[in-house]
Amino acid sequence: MTMATAQKPLLRATKLSKIYKSGRSLLPSRRQQVHAVNEVSLEVMPGETLGIVGESGCGKSSLGRCLTRLQDISSGRLEFDGRDITDLSLRQIRPLRREMQMVFQDPAASLNARRRVGDLLAEPFRIHGIGARSEIEDRVSELLRRVGLRSEHALRFPHEFSGGQKQRIGIARALALHPKLLVADEPVSALDVSIQAQIINLLAELREEFGLTYVFIAHDLAVVRQISNRVAVMYLGAIVEVGDADEVFSTPRHPYTRVLREAMPEPRLHAKRPERAQVKGDLPSPFSPPPGCPFHTRCAFAKERREVQRPALVKAADGRAVACHYPLDGPHPTGLA
Ligand SMILES: Nc1ncnc2c1ncn2[C@@H]1O[C@H](COP(=O)(O)OP(=O)(O)OP(=O)(O)O)[C@@H](O)[C@H]1O
């Protein structure tokens, strides 16, 4: 790989939006729209892990599915490996599936319960016409070993495995064809904490071994922190802060990031801060998001004059970006404070 190639983002989203039309009303004019992803722009560089964190319903899964084109994009642009893939049809996108894969929270849902694990892992090779039968068997055994299982496990059915083992199988299936990009959507949320760490370690090892690039989605900041180089914080469909993971966690600039961080189960952090930041009220309905700054209804710092404007995500000189009229730390990005 040349330096020039290395410096180009593997994935670039520009003002990417996903709007769902709710089917609740029979009258099309009365149907409500959910702006699940609202003009998100981000870049993922080869070899890095971008964590995406935010509360349930903020649009993380929708963004993940758009980034891998498992679902259509309503507006904006998506480039993968230098190619515009925004409007590719399902047929056109199929060959790219080898290069961009997803791992989900519930691996059992994507593993056909009636088929043996060996068959499930052989499927990607068959679909893409790769390898003779004996070669595929060898590759399946190797895959199982690589994710910490045994080759004999190929003969078993998914229900014979624990939650952590099922996720190992899900990861093996996603990595079978050596993709460039893996989007993991809450891959450890359903697992016990001790198993979570094992799966995160496995993902980190595989990233190094295969030179993978990850988008790692989770509602749990502590989980995202363990594996991400950079992190993007989402609120009501928009990215409100993005930057180096350690810096975002140690000195959050968006009031919402600070609330998320202080909810982390770290006794040391809480002991130092008896007055923890509180988020006021409930997450507004995505059917009728507040005008102006989407966080102003819950923000301890918002003042009326700033409610009417939606703050843009502006990058400061140190590379961190925040969409806030009242950032908490560091250079002010908009000059409005
Ligand atoms: N297929 C769909 N049709 C209509 N609305 C949808 C659809 N999928 C998601 N939504 C809505 O879009 C918004 C974002 O949902 P999404 O699942 O992307 O968020 P999330 O942050 O991943 O939440 P969770 O962690 O609970 O899955 C929510 O209001 C959700 O109800």
Automatic annotation (TrEMBL):
Query: Which SUPFAM superfamilies does the record cross-reference, listed alphabetically?
Result: P-loop containing nucleoside triphosphate hydrolases (SSF52540)
Entry GO MF terms: ATP binding; ATP hydrolysis activity
Q: Which UniProt keywords apply?
A: ATP-binding, Nucleotide-binding, Transport
Q: Where does the ABC transporter domain start and stop, copy by copy? A: 14-261
Which compartment or compartments is the protein found in? Cell inner membrane
Q: What is its main location?
A: membrane
Choose one Gene Ontology CC annotation of this protein and give it.
plasma membrane
Give the highest taxon in the source lineage: Bacteria
Topology of the protein relative to the lipid bilayer: Peripheral membrane protein
Q: Which InterPro entries match?
A: AAA+_ATPase, ABC_transp_ATP-bind, ABC_transporter-like_ATP-bd, ABC_transporter-like_CS, Oligopep_ABC_C, P-loop_NTPase
Q: Which family does it belong to?
A: Belongs to the ABC transporter superfamily.
What's the protein name? Peptide/nickel transport system ATP-binding protein
Give the originating organism.
Tropicimonas isoalkanivorans
